[in-house]
Design goal:
heterodimer; A: 336 residues; mainly alpha; 2 domains; two-stranded antiparallel ribbon; 72% helix; B: 434 residues; ABC transporter involved in vitamin B12 uptake, BtuC; globular
Amino acid sequence: MEILHALIVLSNFVIIPAIAYGSQLALGALGVTLVYGILRFSNFAHGDTMAFGTMIVILLTWWLQGIGISIAPLPTALIALPFAIFVTAILLLGTDRFVLRFYRNQKSAPVILLIVSLGIMFVYNGLVRFVIGVGDQRFSDGARFIISARDFKKITGLSEGLAIKTTQGITVITAVVIVAILFWFLNKTRTGKSMRAFSDNEDLALLSGINPERVVLYTWLIVAVLATIAGTLYGLDKSFKPFVYFQLLLPIFAAAIVGGLGNPLGAIAGGFVIAFSEVTVTYAWKKVLMYALPENLEPSGLTQLLATEYKFAVSFAILLIVLLFKPTGLFKGKAL
Amino acid sequence: MSELLKTYLLFAFVAFLIIITGVIQSWNAALFILNMGLISAVMSLGVNLQWGIAGLLNVGIMGFVALGGLATVLISMPPLTDAWAAGGPRIILGLGIGGITIACAILMFQKLPNTKWRFPVIAIFIVFGFVLYRSVLRPAVIAVEAVNPAAEGYLGGLGLPVIMAWPVGGLMAAGAAWIIGKTALGLRSDYLAIATLGISEIIIAILKNEDWMTRGVKNVVGIPRPVPYEIDLQANETFVERAASFGLDPTTASTLFVKIAYAGLFGLVLFILVWLSQRALNSPWGRMMRAIRDNEIAAQAMGKDIKARHLQIFILGSAVCGVAGAMMTTLDAQLTPGAYQPLRFTFLIWVMVIVGGSGNNLGAILGGFLVWFLWVQVEPIGYWLVDLITAPMDPESPVRLHLLDSVAQMRLLTMGLFLLLMLRFYPRGMIPEK
């Protein structure tokens, strides 16, 4: 019984939030890793791309709510999502056409493209703040819980509750669906295969007649889908604040590098590694240990390893360890 | 037009902009731009060392600047005896335990035979060290933070003259750079960028949360000054007479005098650093650095230790940023950890370096002044512009009000566009590398 309680508390506060957060990070890291694999630079504008996509979702959600459209119990944001992806895709393709293509044709060094992406980040960031402001925005509506702690207690008769938020459920389901489609696309379709070929060896791909501009076009379309969805899911789950999305850059890059830059499978694994370490290290274990340990061993303090404010330190520490011992990442990336 | 003449003209143009500000707005505003311009120029000089000369990408300038700010507090604030009595030695002991744990773990990793037991043994050792460190540090921190929390609640500093904080800020930044450089240099260039981004976020998190050291978001105010206070000047008879002979009232004269004194100090630091950088750039060492930047493989074939050279210049550049950070906190006379924003302290410095001309010290300085001037002035200009464009609208229309509200965000957009346009059309900057 005690152990069961410990397990429930653990799932409620650690496992379920970490899975949801991990899925969001994985989607973000997939975007970064795709740009790295095909366009060959670290895209520092990714966090702000996510913020832009989410902003469009929020604006559309407000409009839809205003005219009374809803799909309760699901959040209205889900209807807005496809349109927001479309707008984000236009923004990304426009950026590529007017900014990045020049450097690609010049065969500029990856470092130059990185600096260009800093400039793009500035512009996106200014755009988002200009339109929606710097404040916190909540746009989640519909049912709050799939199963609330009280219902869970009533059904099972246990004294500890297990709550699953609707947004957490949606996050995990959406992430699984998107990842499945992405891998099907990359492995089975002609375009997906040409993208992988281009990422493996650009010269060989060009020799076999693959059109690089087409590959780049598809990459940005996929990045628009991934970034908008990742941003929206994060915003639904927590809340939307432009600066937080910029800060997400660090765990996202950490996830992509831990998994191996340029490797989609690694990005997903990396996302979950980062999310689980972040949540476990900053969680106060007192309650779990109270159930799990025999009475005389119970901890007196909160048994929290690090204050929540230091969650970036966790992604960073993992990043350093990986860079020191396995710079190519857990799965073999193309880096180094 | 010769290169030299062009350089002179560009600097004259920036001086002209600042003087115009003085005439139109106020001389106080102009001197504020000048002082922050001097500090920005020092920062962009540091980044230029790293990027312009060695091609190293540092995206964590904010962290090194903040360390300089921390140094100002630790050096110049008077020590608080009550707080020290409450838990000072114990905090030192706790930090010592933490440091020894890390050092021992590194030593164990190097000395223990590489068997399957090595990692578990080190991991267990680190966990024990961490628990010990927390159990020693935590009560002391709580005790210190409980001493007069409304006004103090931290240990204070050493009570030394604030100027000493400038080199110390540089040393602290150099220490952080050493840790980063040791791990991330020698790998892909992007990794250094991401690692520096990480360390800067962590440094800010420490400054915001370790209240016993920095008072966190409650801010440390009233940091001692290296220059006289306005109040004292206004009470000084000779000063008031002097001011009157220039036709100035004592209040204006004293604020101007203080700002000019700061400008003199900052100008001196900038001058020394520029002189050193120019000497370094034109020495065999500088030529070697640029050779490494331009062709690493060839430099390696000549027997140069690329990782060690990169580490060296990365530490030097970060130290310069630390000095600038200490200078900035001295000018503000307060440490506000909440005010450190990456867009302002990291990416704006990048705009300065790129716009001014990477690889050229004078270019970096010009960029520092010019971009800082724009950063300050874009807001009033933007406000004026939006006001003009939306003038035909109803004064209470929500669109107009929202636009006027968001004008402050326009500087990001402007800076981003400025950076992208420069990179596209003048990738070598306004004063290119020779």
